[in-house]
Design a protein that fits this description.
The chain is mainly beta. It has two helices and seven strands; from the N terminus they run H-E-E-E-E-H-E-E-E. It is 12% helix and 34% strand.
Length: 138
């Protein structure tokens, strides 16, 4: 992957985190499998829905760390489909890794698998109002 020259400007020192997020986002958009939707549920909540037909819950793994949401699907298609002769094969039987860069403060609150769709919910906690901070003197 090419290194972005945008953040190499001498006036943009200390933006390594922004560069890393941009590079993560670029890597995440290179693969198109499995297809997904991102839905705005309002009030700072979003839902990511992945089409994971043929995967069971124990074949899927979801991890969150460093503002990165990663979904991994593992299939043992070779053993289960040995001896089967397909006339047409349009259902993908391969594993995948799909990543999403999460905005600061966005927290994954749950995941649900139903009807071949994996729904992952995330929300931004409500902002707390400004409060005064007392100044101590010696």
């Amino acid at each position: 992957m090419e290194r972005s020259v945008l953040f190499d400007h001498p006036l943009l020192l200390g933006f390594e985190h922004a560069r890393a997020l941009a590079e993560q986002a670029a890597r995440a958009t290179q693969d198109t499998y499995p297809p997904y939707n991102v839905e705005d549920l309002g009030e700072g909540r979003i839902r990511i829905t992945l089409a994971v037909a043929g995967f069971s819950a124990d074949q899927l793994q979801i991890q969150v760390g460093d503002n990165q949401l990663t979904i991994v699907g593992r299939r043992e298609a070779e053993g289960a489909e040995a001896g089967r002769d397909f006339l047409h094969r349009g259902i993908a039987a391969r594993g995948f890794t799909r990543g999403f860069v999460l905005a600061d403060g966005l927290e994954v609150t749950g995941a649900r698998l139903a009807d071949g769709l994996l729904n992952i919910d995330a929300e931004r906690p409500p902002r707390r109002p400004a409060r005064p901070i007392p100044i101590q003197t010696s």
